[in-house]
Structures are given as structure tokens and as C-alpha cells.
Write a structure and sequence with these properties.
CATH topology of the largest domain: D-Maltodextrin-Binding Protein, domain 2
Number of domains: 2
Structural class: alpha/beta
Strand content: 25-35%
Largest sheet: 6 strands, mixed
Number of helices: 8
CATH class of the largest domain: Alpha Beta
CATH superfamily of the largest domain: Periplasmic binding protein-like II
Order of helices and strands: EHEEHEHEEEHEHEHEEHH
Length: 209
């Protein structure tokens, strides 16, 4: 059995057509089910539907052979025990710093407070800028942190930027372009190399089309 872990939400919606083009179709409508494991039209392939961070965990420990996850998760996690196979070109966005509008463009202070769920990325980024940053981990509602004085800046994913504007913030500095990637467990790629390569190549062909 080959197990493919998929990320919930927008990434899942964009991934399913690629899987379908590669000949893998869930036997039921994932959007209408509360299940987490789904059989497919192929008896040797099943799908898991998980949070992005959990996709990496399942693949790393071999509970899933391959999966689809955002590049932001790989950057934050480090991608240990994984092969990054293909950029799927879906769920595109940007990883940015953002701050209150009246603070944008102001030079960094000697020490700042930064709110984010991307702790490792933020630590690396500000160290590269030569800025001492106290990182405050939040799991959501990042835009509120500068407004309430919890942080000077945030590091977060930006798509249209409308949420920032609605909360009186604006983009400050670009960190990375983000899109979804097909990744695989290193051990699985050795043991099930032929099977996984067929799936990987089919998905890559679907992306190129």
C-alpha cells in the first residue's frame, strides 16, 4: 500500500485535480466527509488528509510514503528525512514581514519583537539582517499583535494582502516565494522506488500540462 498525505484546505482543493490527472481519484467526496483516510480507485493507494505540519510528521516517520505540503512548512521544519520531489506550482503566496502602516519603511531598532508561527524561519531571517529579534509564537490572528502592542512586526504568509490592509498593516520585507511541493520519505523512496517514481512522474506531467 502506498500512502499519500495531503494538506487540508486550499492546498487539498488544488492537489486533487493533479492526482486525478495522474490516475488517482478518491472513492468519495473528501470535501463532504469527516474521515481522515480515503480509499482511491487504485487498490494500492490511499490518501490521508491532515494539517500541513502533520503531513511532514507522518512522512518523516514513514506512516505516509509521500505527500503535498507548502514550502513554508518545509522551510520551518527543515525537511529532515524527506526528499523534495517537485514544485507543484499551486497555492502560491509570499512569506513576508509586515508592520503597522505608520511604521513601514522605518529602520530596524537594535532589538524588536516579532510575532509569528514560523519561529525558525523568523530567527534565521532576522539573524541574517543583523537584527536582534525576540520571537513570540502565535498560532493565528497574527495581524492583531502589532495593533495591540504585542509585537513590532509579524512574519506570515501573504496572498492578496487584503487581511493586512483590513487590520491597518502593510507588507514590509519579502522573505520567500511559497508554493506547494511534492515530498517523499527517504526510506520509502528506496523500498518502493519504482511505484513512487511512477506516481511522482505522473503528477509532474500533470503540473507541466
Amino acid at each position: 500500500m502506498i500512502t499519500i498525505a495531503l494538506t487540508k484546505g486550499r492546498i487539498l482543493k488544488d492537489t486533487l485535480p493533479l492526482l486525478s490527472a495522474a490516475g488517482i481519484v478518491p472513492e468519495e467526496d473528501i470535501s463532504k466527509s469527516r474521515k481522515l483516510v480515503f480509499a482511491t480507485n487504485r487498490s494500492d493507494v490511499q490518501l490521508l488528509v491532515l494539517r500541513g505540519a502533520d503531513v511532514l510528521t507522518y512522512i518523516r516517520y514513514g506512516a505516509a510514503d509521500m505527500g503535498v505540503v507548502g514550502k513554508d512548512m518545509l522551510m520551518e521544519d527543515g525537511g529532515a528525512q524527506l526528499y523534495e520531489l517537485h514544485d507543484l506550482g499551486i497555492a502560491r503566496c509570499r512569506l513576508m514581514t509586515a508592520t503597522k502602516k505608520d511604521q513601514a519603511g522605518i529602520a530596524y531598532q537594535s532589538r524588536i519583537k516579532v510575532a509569528t508561527k514560523y519561529v525558525n524561519i523568523a530567527q534565521r531571517y532576522y539573524a541574517e539582517q543583523g537584527v536582534q529579534a525576540d520571537i513570540i509564537k502565535l498560532y493565528g490572528g497574527m495581524e492583531l499583535a502589532p495593533i495591540m502592542g504585542l509585537a513590532d512586526e509579524i512574519v506570515d504568509i501573504v496572498d492578496t494582502g487584503k487581511t493586512l490592509v483590513a487590520n491597518g498593516l502593510e507588507e514590509a520585507n519579502f522573505i520567500a516565494d511559497i508554493s506547494s511541493r511534492l515530498v517523499a520519505n527517504k526510506a520509502s523512496m528506496k523500498v518502493k522506488h519504482a511505484e513512487l517514481k511512477v506516481i511522482s512522474d505522473a503528477i509532474a506531467a500533470a503540473v507541466s500540462e
